[in-house]
Amino acid sequence: MTMAIHSARQYVGGNSLSWLLKDLDLAGVKGAVLSSTDGLVMSWSESVSREDAEKISAAVSSQVSVGKALAQYVGGGVRQLLVECEGGFVLMSAATTDSVLVVLTDPTADIGAVTHRMNELAARVGRELTAGPRRVADDGPERS
């Protein structure tokens, strides 16, 4: 299965990270969404409609809140959340402190392989979303 990706950039002028989601093209993966923790869709695969991507992002926001509330009982921050449904799995993995990678699978998916790929991808998304330090231009105007 080949997943074509859409990016919210064309709609809201944000940073396009859609090329990263292509790495989730694994057996059993139905689709993927990159969401902010406050419920805004950042990118989504073609197999997920824009409307569904927005609904998934909104639901992720509440799941992140639940995860944070429960994490206080075991310590540390939330890294991953998994919801097992009759029709498959919804896996959520922190990409940065403010973004979540969501993958939808059917029941036949190798969850270990999907989670491993998600962890690798989340690290790449984190690097892409983190701005480097600003530098002073050498040829800029002098200031007094």
What are the SSEs and their pairings?
Layout: E1 5-7, H1 9-12, H2 18-21, E2 29-36, E3 41-45, H3 50-71, E4 80-85, E5 88-96, E6 99-105, H4 111-129
Antiparallel strand pairs: 1-3, 2-3, 2-6, 4-5, 5-6
- What is the fold-level CATH name, i.e. the topology? Beta-Lactamase
Name the quaternary structure.
single chain
Highest CATH level, the class: Alpha Beta
Order of helix and strand elements from N to C terminus: EHHEEHEEEH
Largest sheet geometry: 6 strands, antiparallel
Measured as a percent range, the helix fraction is: 25-40%
What is the count of distinct domains? 1
- Total strands: the figure is 6
Structural class: alpha+beta
Count of individual helical segments: 4
Mean pLDDT across every amino acid position: 81
State the CATH superfamily name: Dynein light chain 2a, cytoplasmic
Shape: globular
| Poorly predicted parts | 1-15
Rg (CA only): 17 Å
Domain Roadblock/LAMTOR2: 18-105
InterPro entries: Mycobact_SerProt_Inhib_Rv3364c (IPR053141), Roadblock/LAMTOR2_dom (IPR004942)
Protein name: Roadblock/LC7 domain-containing protein
